[in-house]
Amino acid sequence: MAARQQQQQGTPAQGKTYQFKLVLLGESAVGKSSLVMRFVKDHFDEYRESTIGAAFLAQTISLDDNTTVKFEIWDTAGQERYKSLAPMYYRNANCAVVVYDITQAASLEKAKAWVNELQRQADPNIVIALAGNKCDLDSRRAVETETAQEYADEAGLLFFETSAKSAHNVTQLFTSIAKKMPLDQLADQSRNKTKGLNPRGVDLSRPANPNNCACKKSLIVL
Known about the structure:
By secondary structure, this protein is of the alpha/beta class.
């Protein structure tokens, strides 16, 4: 409870906050939006309408008293007609959650296709997590945990089975991603700039340049 309250209160009084762009990908109806709403607002809606285009949300995670990670989250639509728009959202993303439904074997194959696309076209250092959602429906399981875990290990992915409905592993999923982000590389941006490197993410404890904003805080309807 204390951890949840600390997240909702935002940035600690002292310490550093690092900002990263995170994108969610996966087939329609696997529960991407429900996962985000559980993480951001600790809320679950049994009957959610499909996302149109993409939706933007943000949430922070306090890793310790001195370090906070802020995720700027793009929740993309899973319908096939929006697939061509996906690069707009995963371009320059620091991390991604690729979601499948454990009751639908075909959704894991779709997730694998998204992982392959990210590994080919996104930032080569992107942190990718595979999330097998709807584990509260274990009696209807079509994808065994071991099968997905083996694939995730081979592909170098973080892996969690989650339930947006029960909140199982939702916070753990995003916390594990936050812990994988290269905070040490951001601790000295001046050194990176001197070497001509583009740091992955933004150190919000330093004055921001509005022209470098990774994405707009808005609902995108396309």
